[in-house]
Design a protein that fits this description.
Layout: H1 13-40, H2 46-56, H3 62-87, H4 95-109, H5 116-124, H6 135-160, H7 168-190, H8 192-196, H9 203-208, H10 220-246, H11 254-270, H12 280-291, H13 298-326
């Protein structure tokens, strides 16, 4: 089995440390650029958004805001538990290490598009000389969250999809595509062992294949707990979003609000690389598009998305930056 220590790494520890410091500067710079660009993108309506945001800090909203804050550690704890259960098949990982690794992945994830940054951040922060063997576990972890979003998105589309202002042809394509992907998920999971044994004609793919072999080691019983963690984590995040929307007197039922949130999160999941520096702009665009049919004030919709982002993403993101700087490239021999 290929191990991390077998890779052609520089022998000079000084060079390695310098490269690691450069990587820290790079990640931190991109994260700060992401935050700055996100805030700058709302410059046109920042005053009205600020007014709306200021109006939320009243006694009547105290319980709702407190609940949203309390759900933040629950959200990332569930993600860490999912990651820990999957990574344990490759390397020994404690919950504390999994939590640190998850937040590190969040920080690196905004610097690199799609899920590549999240995977690199998680795996690199593990204290093991076999850390690269956990790449497959990170892929499965992200795949589980992607599948949960697909299932909830399909249910959400069946509830409010007919009200979305798209052509009948596009609506049919969306419905068919979602059904196909939801059905495809269990098929891929069933043939996971065969897929990992597949030999490619490309030397590069065969070279990195050992880092995905952990996928073949998962039995059905190993995947069920992470799937449940992923489902509960998704429901926690959805609850936070719905709570943020309930702070405003929107003329929508709870089912409509929840279904719209499901579609927003679905779009964010399927189109993760539309913005190199994050998904907030995409989330706002989809939210405005979906809620436009109800004639809701745009500044209130944007404020709700900003509130969810600030509470659930910005705080952990800043912690992730700190963890990136505190991290040392240490190994724990297994």
């Amino acid at each position: 089995m290929v191990q991390d220590k077998q890779l052609p790494l520089p022998n000079d520890k000084t060079v390695s440390r310098k490269l690691w410091w450069l990587l820290k500067f790079f990640v931190t710079g991109l994260v700060l650029s992401y935050i700055f660009s996100t805030l700058q993108s709302e410059q046109k309506g920042v005053q009205s958004i600020g007014v709306v945001l200021g109006q939320l800090w009243v006694k009547e909203n105290g319980i709702t805001l407190l609940t949203m804050l309390l759900l933040v550690p629950a959200n990332w704890a569930l993600e860490s538990l999912k990651w820990q259960r999957l990574a344990l098949k490759a390397v020994p990982v404690t919950f504390k290490e999994a939590f640190r690794s998850t937040l590190t992945g969040l920080a690196v994830g905004v610097a690199v598009p799609a899920q590549l940054g999240d995977t690199l951040g998680r795996v690199a922060s593990l204290r093991s000389d076999k850390r690269l063997l956990a790449i497959g576990a990170a892929v499965v972890s992200n795949g589980i969250q992607f599948y949960v979003s697909l299932v909830v998105g399909l249910v959400s589309w069946s509830l409010v999809g007919s009200s979305v202002p798209v052509s009948p042809t596009l609506s049919t394509i969306i419905s068919g595509g979602l059904i196909f992907l939801v059905v495809l998920g269990p098929v891929v999971a069933y043939f996971r062992k065969s897929l990992t044994r597949w030999k490619s004609n490309f030397a590069f793919i065969n070279k990195i294949a050992p880092y995905f072999q952990v996928i073949s080691r998962y039995e059905a019983g190993d995947l069920l707990p992470p799937l449940l963690y992923g489902m509960f984590r998704y429901l926690v995040f959805m609850l936070q979003f719905v709570l943020a929307l309930t702070l405003f007197n929107f003329p929508l039922t709870l089912v409509e609000l929840t279904a719209c949130v499901g579609l927003i999160l679905l779009a964010k999941t399927i189109i993760p690389a539309i913005n190199l520096f994050g998904d907030l702009g995409l989330r706002e665009f989809i939210a405005l598009f979906l809620f436009s049919q109800y004639g809701l004030p745009s500044e209130q919709v944007i404020t709700a998305t900003l509130l969810v982002w600030a509470i659930n993403i910005l705080g952990p993101l800043l912690v992730g930056i700190v963890l990136v700087w505190q991290h040392k490239w240490l190994s724990r021999h297994d």
